[in-house]
Amino acid sequence: AQSDEKAIIAKLHQDIVALQGSESVAVGKLEKFKLKLQKMEIHNLRLEQKLDERDQALYFARLEGRNRTKHLQQTVQSLRRQFSGALPLAQQEKFSKTMIQLQNDKLKILEEVQHAQQERRNAENRALELELKLKSLEELVSALKDTRGAQKVMEWHMKMEELHLQELKLSRELVKQKEEVKYLRNIISEYECTISNLEEENVQQNKFHEERQMAWDQREVELQHQLDQYDHQRTEILSTALKLEEATGSVPDPSLPIPQQLELALRKIQEHIRTILETRATCRSLEEKLKEKETALWKAEQNVISRDKVINELRLRLPATSGEKIMAELSKQDDSEYHHAIKIAHQTIANMQARLNQKEEVLKRYQHMLAKAREEQEEIAKKHEEDIRVLHQKLDLYTDNSLNKFKETALELGKKTSVSLSISKYFHHLEQTVAEQDNSLASLVGKLKKTSSDLEKQKQITVSKINEFETIRAQLQEKHTVDVEQIKEEANELRKILSQKEKELANVKAELEVQKEANNRAPTATLKNLVAQLKSQLAIKENQHKALSKALLELRAEMTANAEQQIISAASQKEAYMNVQEIVDRQTKGLTTQIEELNNQITKLTDNLKISKNKETSLSDEKDELNQELQKKEKAFAKILREKNEIEKENEELKNRIRRLSSSIQSKADEQNLIDVLQKKIKKLESELEKKCEETEIKSLREEKSSKEEIIRWDEGKKWQIKMEGLRNKLREKEKEADTLSKQLNTLKEIYTKIEKEKIALQKKLKTTGVTVDRVVGIRATETEKELEELRKRNLELENEVAHMRTLQAIPRDSVVEDLHFKNQYLQEKLHALQRQCSRETFLRPLTSGIGSSGQYRREQEVLKENLRLSSENIELRFQLEQANKDLPRLKDQVDDLKEMCELLKKEKAEAERKWGNIRGAGRSGKTVPELEKTIGLMKRVVERVQRENEELKKAPAVVSNEKLLGLEQENERLKSDMEKMKFDLEGQLSVRYESKTKGMEKLITENERLRKELKKEADRGEKLRIEKNNLEILNEKLNVQLEETIKKLNLAESQLDGADSRSWKSIVTRMQETKLKEMETDIAKKTQSIANLKQLLQEATEREHNADKNLQDLKEQIEHLKHLPEGAGTEQKMIKELQLLRLTNNQLEKEKAELMHQLEDYRHERYASTSEHPVAGHNEAAEKDKIDRLMTEMADLQTQLEASGLEKQQLKEETEELRRELETYNPSFFEELEDLKYNYKEEVKKNIILEERLKQLYEEFGIQ
C-alpha cells in the first residue's frame, strides 16, 4: 500500500513537474507572442501615421489646387469687371491709328499756320521799312528845302550816337536773358530727372511692399496648415495610447485556475493573430489605394496645368456671365471641407484689391501733379518766348531806324561835298527812287490780292466741308433717334412685363388670403402643401418684380446719361466757329462712344436677364425654406410700406423747403454768404452721415448677416458705384469747362495784346491819313453795336435751345424742372434789364461823335458783356449747389432704408436659424439629438449588463460550456461595434454643427470688413467731391480777378487813345487793313449763318424727338387700354383652375374626416379596454375625453369650412358666367385692331433694320467704326 501510495505520489509529482514545465513553456510563448503583437501594433501605427500624412498631403494639395483655380477665376472676373465695356484690341488699334493720323494732320496745319503768320510778319516788317524810308525821304526833302542843313546833320549825329548806345545796352541785356533762359532750362531738365527718379523709386517701393505682403500671407497660410497638422497628430497619439491601454488590459485573471488561464490566453492570441492578419490585409488595401490616389493626384495636377493654359487662352473670349455661372456651379459642388480655404482666399483677395485701389489713387495724384507741373513749365516757356520776340522786334526796329538815319547823314554829307552838282539832277534821282518804291508797293498789292484770293478759296473749301459734316451729323442724329426709340420700346416691353407680373402677384395674394383663412379654420396637410406652393410662387414673382425694377432703373440711368451727353454735345457746338474740324472730330467720337455704350448697355441688360433667370432657378430650390418665413415677410412688407409713405411725406416737405430756399436765394444779392450757409449744411449732413455710418458699423458687428444680405449689399454697392461714377463724370466735365474758360481767357489776352499793337500802329498811321478820328470811332461804334446785337440774339437763341433740350431730355423730376424754369426766368429778367439800360444810355448820350463818348460807350458795352457772362456762371454754380443739397437728403433716405432692410433681414435670419436648429437636429440617421442620447444610454446599460454576466461566468466553475462563452463574446463585440458606430455618428453630427457655426461667423466677419471698406471709400469720395467743389470756387474767383485786370487794361488803352493827335494822313497800309477788316467781317457773317443753320437742324431734330415721344405715349395708352379689356379668357382659365383646386381640397377634407372617425372609434375601443384592465386610471379617461371633445370641435370646424367652400364654388361659377357674357359682347373689330398693331410693329422693325444697314454703309464710307 505504501509503495502504491509512493508510486501515485511519484506520478503526481511527475505530472506536477510536467505541468510546471509546460506552464513555463506556455508563459515563454505568451511573452514572445506579446512582444510580436506589440511590434506589429507599432508597425501598424507607423503605417497608419504614414497613411494619414499622405492623406493630409493629398488634402492640402487638393486645397491648394482649388484655391489656385478659385483665385484665377476671381482674377479673371475682376479683370472682366475692370475691362467691362472696354473696346477690343483691334478696335483700339484702329482708333489709335486714326488718332495718330489726326494728330499728324493737326501738326501739319499748325506748321502751315505758323508759316502764314511768319509771312504776315515779314510783310508787316517790309511795310514798316517802306514807311521809314518814306519818312526819311520826306525829312531829306524838308532838309534840302530848309537852310538849316548843318544843324539837322548835328541832330542826326546825336541821335545816331544815342541809338548806338541803346543798341549796346540791348545786346548786353539779350546776352543776360539768353544765359538766364539756359539756366532755367537746365533747372527744368534737372527737375524732370528728379521727378522721374522719384516715380521709379515709388514704383520699386510699392513692388517691394507687395512682395513682402504676399510673403506674409503665404507665411500665415503655412502656419495655419502646420497648426492643422499638429492637431491631427495629437488626435492620432491619443487614439494609439487608448489602443495600447486596451491591449495591456486584456491579461487573464491570476485568481482563475491555470488551464482556464491558458485557454483564455490562447483565445486572446488567436484573436490577436486574426486582428494582425486583418490589419495586414487592410494595410495592403490601403497601400493600393494610396498608389491609386497618387496616380489620381498626378492626373489632377496635369489637369490643373492644362486648365490653367485653357483659362489663359479663353480669358478674353469668355463673357462676364459665363464666369459667374462657373463660379455658381463650383460653389454648389464644393463640400463643407473647403470653406475655410475659401475664406482665406477671399481675405487675401480683398487685401490685394484694397492695395490696388490705394495704388491707383496714388498714381492718379502723381499724374495730376505731373500734369500741373508740365502746364506751369509750358506757360513759363511761352512767356519767355513772347518776351524774346518782343525784344527781337524792338531791336529790328532800332537797327532799321539807325541804318536809315546813317544813310541820310551820309547823303547830306555827300551833298555838302558836292554842292557844285545841280539841283535838277538830284531831284531826278529822287523821282527815280520814288518810282521804284511805287513799283515795289504795286508788286506788294498784287501779292496781297493773290493771298486774299487763296484765302477765299480756302473759305469755300471749309464751307463745303462744313456742309458735308452737317449732312453726316444729321444722319447720325437720325440714327440716334432710332436707337432712342428702340430703347424706349424695350423699356415699354419691360413695363408691360412688370404690369403683368404685378397683376399675377395681386391674384396670387388674393389666393393666399383665401388659403390663409382656410388654414386658420383647419390647417390640414394638403392645404399646407397648397399654401406652401402658393407662397413659393409669390416669392418667385416678388423676385422677378425686383429684378425688373432694377432693369428699369438701369434703363432710366442710361437714358439720363444719353441726355447729358446730348447736352454736352450741344454745348460743344457753340465753339464750332473756332475750329470746325475739331468739332466734327469730337461729334463723331462722341457718337461712336454713344453707340458703343448703347451696345454695352444692351449686353448688360441681356446679362441681367440671364442672372435673373439663374436667380429664379436658385429660388425655386429654396421654396421649402421660405414657406415658413412668408408671414413674417408680409408683416415686414407692411412696415416698409408705412415707412415708405412716411419717407415720401418727408421728401415732399424737403422739396417744399428746397423751393423756399431757392426763392430766398434768388432774392438775395450776397452770393458768398449763401455759399457759406450751404457749405455748413453740407458739412452738417456729412457729419450726420458719418455718425450713421458708425452706428451701422457697430450694429453690423453685433448682429449676424445671411447670404441674402450679401447679395442686396452687393447690388446696392453697384448702384452707389454707378452714382459716384456719374458724379465723377460730371466733375470731369466741369473741369473741362473750366479749362476751356481758361483757354478762352488766354486767347482774349492774346487778342488784347494784338489789339494794343494794332492801336499803336494805327496811331502812327493816322498821322499820315486824312480821315478824322471822329469818323473812325463812329464807324467802330456802329460795328461794335451790330456785333453786340448779333451776340445777344445768338445768346438768347442758344439759351432757349438749351432750356428746350433740357426740358425734353432731362430727368423726369419736379425739382430739376423747377430749377431750369427759375434759371430761365432769371436770365430773361437780366437780359431785359440790360436791354433797358442800353436803350436809356443811347437816349441820354449826346449826338456828338467824339473820341471820349465812343470810348465810354465801348467800355460800358464790354463791362455789360463781362457782367452777363459772370452772372450766368454764378447762376450755374448756384444751381449746382442747389442740386447737391437736394441730392443729399435723398441719399440720406436711401441709407436709412438700407439700414431698416438690414435690421429686418437680420431678424429673419435669426428666426430662420432657430428653425434650422430644430430641423438640423435630425442627423444622418433621421433622429434628433435627444433621441440619439437616449439610445446611447440604453446601449451603455446593455453593455454594462453583458460585462457583469461575463464577470459572473468567469467567477463561475469550469462547467460552463465554451459555446455559451463564444456566443457572449460575439454579442459583446457586436455591441461594442454598435457603440463605436453611434459614437462616430454623434461626433460627425457635432463636427458638422460646429463647422456650420464657425463658417457662419467667418462669413459675418468678412461681410463686416467689406462693409467697413465700402463706407471708408464712400467717405473718401465725399471728401474728394468737397475738394473739387472748393477748387471750382477758387477757379471762379481767379477768373473774376483776371476779368477785372483786363477791364483795367482796356480803360488804360482807351485813355491812351483819347490823348492821341487829331492830325492824321491816309496811306495804302490803312486801306489794306480796312479791306482785311471787311473780309474778317464777311467771314464772321458766314460763320454766324452756318451756326444758325446748325441751330435750325438741332431744332428740327428736337421736334422729331418730341413727335416720336408723343407717338410712343399714344401707343402706351392704347396698350394699357388693351391690357384692361381682354382679361376674359385668362380669368376663365383661372376660375377653372381654382374650381379644380377646391374639388381636390374637398376630397382631401372628406378623406381626413373618414380617418378622424376611424381614429375616434379606435380611441373608444382602447378606452373600454383600458377601463376593463385598469379600473383605477381615471385621470387617463379624463384626458381621452378632452381629446374626443377637441376632435369633435375640429369636425364642426371642418363642416363649416366645407359649407363655406361650397358657397365660394357657387360665387366662382357665377363670376365665370359673367366673364363669358362679357367676352361675347366684344366686337371682332377689336381683335382686328390688335392684328393691325402687330403688323405695324413688324413694319417698323423692318424699317429700323434698313436704316441700320444704311448707317453701316455711311460708317464704312467715312471710315468710322
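Above is the first protein from milestone M3; the second protein from the same milestone is given next.
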Amino acid sequence: MKIIKSFKVVLLFFITIVIQAQTPAVIVKGEINNSYIVTGVETLTATQSITLKPNTWIKQGSVFTAKINPDAYIVPVFSNENYIFTRKFQTEMISTDGIVNNKDVIESIEYFNGLGKVMQNIGIKISPSKYDIVTHVEYDNLGRQDKEYLSYPETTGTIASYRTDAKGKTNSYFISNYSTDINSAAPNPFSQELFENSSLNRVVQKGAPGKDWTLGSGHEIKTDYSVNMASDNVRFYNVSAVWNENLGLYDIALGNNAGTSFYPAGQLYKTIVKDENWTPAAGNYYTTEEFKDKQGKLILKKIYGTSVVNGNNQGVSHETYYVYDIYGNLTYVITPKADGDVNSNVLNDLCYQYKYDDRNRLVEKKLPGKGWEYIVYDKLDRPVLTQDANLKVLNKWNFIKYDDFNRPVYTGEYFNNVNTTRLGVQGLVNDNAVLSEIKQTTVLNINGTDINYSNYAFPKTGIDLLTINYYDDYLNMDLDGGISAVSYGKTPVTNAKGFTTCEKIRTLGTTNWVTTVNYYDAKGRIIYVYSKDNYLTALNTIKTQFDFGGSVLETTSTQKKGSDSVITVVDVYSYDHVGRLLDHKQTINNQTQEVIASNTYDNLGKLITKKVGGGITNNRLQNIDYSYNIRGWLKNINDVNTIGSDLFAFSINYNDIAARSTSLYNGNISKTSWRTANVDNGIKDYVYVYDELNRLAYAIGDQNDQQEIPTYDKNGNIITMYRTDMKPKATSTSKKVMQTIDDLIYTYDGGNRLLKVEDNSNNPEGFFNGVNIIAEYTYDANGNMKTDANKQITNVEYNFLNLPTKIITASGTIEYVYNALGVKQRKIVSGITTDYIRGFQYENNRLQFFSQPEGYVYKNNGVFEYIYQYKDHLGNVRLSYNSSLSIIEENNYYPFGLKQLGYNNIVNSTGNATAQKYKYNGKELQDELGINMYDYGARNYDPTLGRWMNIDPLAEKSRRFNPYTYALNNPVYFIDPDGMMAAPPSTHTDEDGNVIAVIDDGDMGVYKHQNNADGNAPTQSMIENRQHKLGTSAGGEKMGESLTPFGFADFETYAATGILKPGAGARIDFNSTWATDEVSKIFAENPTLPRYAYNARTGKDWDVKNHTPNDNWYYGSNLFGSYASARDAGNFAAGAIAQLSLLPTSFSDYGFGTYNASGNSVWGSIKMLVKDLLLVSNPTTRGTGASSMFIKANYGENPLSSAGIEAGKNFGKILQK
C-alpha cells in the first residue's frame, strides 16, 4: 500500500492517529495538562518504558493496564514534506487497525523536494535493532545525482521523519565503523560520478565508497569518449549475404579482401574504459576499447595485455571483431587468437558463424571447434527442432511442441533418414497446418508413452518422448500416485491456471519416468510437491508452510527408496521483523532437533555472526564471524590472528597493504590467509598476481611454496603451467624442501582443442604424464573429449546433452545414467552403484549421506550424525568437523583446484568417505579409475589442467574466451557456473519486484526471491549458483511467465555482445494489471490499423511504453496472464490490432518495420515502402544492395519487438475464435 502526500495533505486508505513520545517511547491515547486520566478501560503500551507523569489519575472502577512490548508497532509520524509512504503487509488483516507488532508490516518512505526529486529514502525500523535505515540523496548544481550515498542506521529522532542531518550522520557512521576505509578528514561514504562538460552528461569518472576509490585517488573507473583514428587500425570486414534457394538461407561469405582494409578515421564511436588498477604508467594496459558503428553495433572490442604469441610471452592487443551482414545480423565473431586472419580453417577453428533465413531467423550456427548446428521454426517463429553435429550423423533432431500459449508441452527425439537437411525438415514443418497441441481427455500412446495431449503439430511420427509438461489443472493426466495432499492445514487449489502442475522427465535409455506434481495455494505458491522416480524406486514429497508475506516457515520432506524406511526431515525457519533469517532448525525422524544455524546481523542488515550446529538444548558448535569492507566485500571469516576456539579462520585482502602482496582495487583478491586448529595450526597464506586481462598470472604460498604459475594465449588457452609443493620431511628433525611437481607444456590444434600435454618435471604428483604422442586428446564433432591417453581413457560416449554416459579406460568402465534434463541419477563403476536422489546419495542401495545447508548428514549405527563444514568465499570445502569438534578432514587447494598435499591431510574415520569427495567449489570429485575430474553437472573439469573437457553450452555469452576456459582464468574470484543449453532466459526479481537477473536457461518463468540473510538482494551470480542446486527457479517463488524471452533484458546489449543483463531500472509490479488495462483501453476503441498506427506514434496516447507509472520501458505488470514490460505491451497491442484488422498481417508487419526503421516517420516509411516495392520483388535479389535494409525478415523490426508483436497476433487469433 502506498500513501502519497502533497503540500495539501491527503492520506489514502486507512489512517490511525496516535500521539508518539520519544525516549522513553510511549503511546498515549489522551493527554490533558500533562496528566493522564483513566475513566474507563485503558491500556498503555510502550516499547521501552512507561513513565506516569505527575497528576495522573485513575478513577475508581476504571481498568488500567500498562504493557512493555519491545515489538509493539508505533505509527510513524511524517515530516511536512512531499512523500510516498509504502507499506508491505506481512500479516493478513482487513484494515490497518490490525497492525499490532513490527512484524505485521514493513514500511518505507521517500521524501521529495518541490521538483519531484527524491531527497531521502527511509526504511522505517528495518534495522535488526528496529532503527530507521536512512539514505541521503543529493544533487549537483545541474540537478544530477552525482553521488550515491550508502545507508546508515538512525538511532535517534522521530521514526520515519525527514532527517535534516542525514549527510553528517552518514559520514559519522562510516568513520566510526569503517575507520580503515574512510578518511575522516574527507569522508566519502558514497559512489560519485564526474560528468563531462557537455550537454551529453556522459560519465567520465566513477569513484566508489572509501578513500582508496574516491575521485582523485587514481583508482576510479575512467571512461574516454572519442571517434576512431586511422592509427587505431580497426579492420573492415565486408560480408555478402546471398539468398541460396537450395539451402533456404542467406549464404554468408567474407569478401576477398575482408580484414585487410581499415575503417577511415571518424567513422566509429570509440569508448575507452580504464579499470581501478589503471595508472598513467600502465599505458593501454588495464583498458578496454570498444568501437561501435553509427547504428550502435559493436564492431571491435580491444583489450591490451600479456599473452603467449609465437612462443613468447609479450604485450599484445586482444581483438574481438563482430561482423554483420547488410541487414544488421551478427554473422561472424572473430576471436583474438585469429589475429584478423579469416581463412576457412581459422573460421572453423576460432570463429563464431551465424546464418539466417528470409524471415531473419537464425537457422544455422557454428561455434569454434564444434560442428554446425541447425534450427527449424514453425510459422509462429518458435524453434521446434534443433540438431547438432552428433545428432546429424544419427539423422536425429531434438523437438519441442507447444500449446496455444507458447508453453512447451512435450519434447523428445525425432528420427528422419529421408529428409536429412535442415531445409527439408523446415519444409515439412511449413506444410503442417497445425502448429500447437491441445490437452485432451483421451490417452494417446506415442511410441510406448501415454500422454493426454494431441499429436497434430510436426513431427507426428518417428518420435520418442523425453519430457511432458501439464499446466493449469490436474485433470486427465497420469500423476503416478501424486494426488493432492493437505499441507499444514491448507488444501491445494484445483485450478492452478498459468502454473506447471505435472512434469514428467524420462530416464534416458530406459522406459522409466520421474513424475513431479506441484500443488499450489490460492496465492500460487507451491505448498506440496510429489516426486516419484521409477528408475531409482524413490519417492519424495515436500510440504511447505508460508507466512502471509511468502517466507517459508516450515518444510516437511520425506525420502523413501525401495523398501527402506521413510526418512522425514522437518526444517523450521524463523525471521526477524523484516524477514531476515534468524534460525534454522532441523529434525530427522524422531531424533533431537538440531540447530543448523542462528544468524546475527549488524544495524545495516549484514550477516556478522552465524552460530552453527548442536542439539536444541546444547551450545552451538562454532560461532562464525564475518566482516566486510566499506564496499561490502567479504574480508574475514573469523580471525586468523586470534583463532581461539574456532576450528577455521580465513581472511581476504584486496586493496590493503599487506606483506608480499600488491594492493588491488578492482575486486581482484591480492592475498588470502587461513588458519586451522589442525596439527599444523600456523597461519598459511597465498599471494595472487594477475595479468592485465585479470587472468591469474601466479600464486605463491607463504614459504614460497605451493606455487601455481600459468601462461595463456590470446584466447585464454593455458600454454604452460608450473607448480611446486613441499616434499615431506625425511626425518622428524629435517626441513621441508620445495619441489617442482608440474612443469607443463600444452599443445593445441589450430583452434582451442588441447592435443597434448608434456610434463618436464618428471614428477608423478599433480599431472600424470602417461604418454608422449602427437594426439593425446581427441574430440567428437561437438567438441567433447573422446580420449585421454595420459589417463588411459580409450573412449567416452556422450548423450544428446553432451554428458558422458560411458568412460572406458584400460582398467575398467564408468557408466552414467541421466534424466532428460541432464540430472545425474546413477553411476556404476567397479561393482559400486551410486544413486543420486534429490541430495540423497546411496551406494548399492545403502544411504551414504544427504546434504544440509552447513554440511551433510550420514547414518552411523542407525543414528543420523551431523557433519559441519567450513567453506571459503568460492564454496570450496575447507574443513569438516563433527559434533565433538573433531576435525574430519581439511582441504586446501591450488587456485585452479588441485588439492595441496604435504600438511594437514589426516582424514578422521568418523566421517563419510563418499561425502568427502565433494571438495573444490563443493563439487564431486570423480576419482574412480584415475579419472580425477570434478563433475559440475553440465561438464567435467580437470583441476590439474585447469580446463573443461567439453565446450561451454553458454560459450556465446563470453566469446572472447575459448569455450574450454575455466572461470575466465581467474579461479580466485569466479566460480564457473554449470553450463546450460542456450535458450530464452528466466527472469528473477528481488522481493520488491526489481529485476536482478536474466539467465539464459530455457525457462521463461518469472521468479521472486527473498533478500539474503544479510538483508541485501541476491545478485545475478548468486542466482546462477543457486540454479545448479535448485533448478532454474534458483529457489525463487514462481510468479508466472514472461510474455517474451527478453522483455526485461537489455536486449540491445545482448544482441551486440551476447551478454544478458537486466534492462536499466527493470521492475515488475506483481500486483498490477497496468499493461492489461492499457491494452484493453486500446481494444475498447476497436481502432482500424491506420488509426492505431497514428495514435501509437512516439508520445501519442497509445504509445504504451511512454506512459508507464515510473516512466521506464522496463516497467512490468500483468498482461492477460503473462508478465510484460511496457515495451512488450505496446508491441503486443500492435500485433493484436494487426491480426484483428482486415489487412494481411504481412502488410502490417511490413508497415511496422519500415516505420520503425525510418525513425517513426510516416512520410519516411511511405517512401521506403515505395522504394522497396519498386526495386525488390523476390528473395533472390535480396542482398544485392538495391534495398539493403528494409525488405528482410521482421521487415526492419528488431527481434525483441517482433516477439511482442507475434504474441499479440497470437492473442488476436484467440479473440477471432
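Note on the second protein: Residues 876 and 922 are 5 Å apart (CA to CA).
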